[in-house]
Design a protein that fits this description.
It is built from 7 helices and 5 strands, in the order H-H-H-E-H-E-E-E-E-H-H-H. The chain is an alpha+beta fold. The chain has a domain of 113 residues. The chain has a 5-stranded antiparallel sheet. The chain is globular. The N and C termini lie far apart (55 Å).
Length: 188
Amino acid sequence: MLDMEVIAKRIAELDNEPDMSHARRDLMMRAAVWKGHVPTDFLIAHGRDYKIGPDSFKLPRGEIKQCFMNASHLAIKRPDLTYVEGKVYCHGIGLDHAWCVDWDGVVHDPTIRDGHDGHISNYFGVPFKKDYLRKAIVWNRYYGLLDYFVAAKTAPKLYELGLEAGQDWLLAQGARPPRKPRKKKAAG
């Protein structure tokens, strides 16, 4: 059961932190409500805010609703960009999203059509090593690194060990995940 007094107190404390971004404040409020929600806790611990720049939405657009695939392909293709996964805030609502950033932490989003009209306010996410990104895609057979369901073979270890150790764990593994032994068919 939720202790509304504790949650109200935590929200009031967050309101007294004027330098905190809308994205981090939103995630901290979620953490206050969903105690022990591992993906939210991981995002708070390892994520950061990213800046929208004048060229953030000038890349050729990838497929609509395929941000994890679009950002993965862009990051792998371009050595000057890093894959980031987290939340984009559209009209103040945090949505799961993936994009790339340059060396200065400026967003390069291959999926969102135009974020300069004011509906996109924040990007908050976790940057990943390219080698980890490549290998996680192969292991999971899906794009996306933070979702328990699509990244079922890699996300639990990432959450357990933390960002650096979790990425290092996967990079030390074989090219493909270990296969489960097949059950022998009964003779007959």
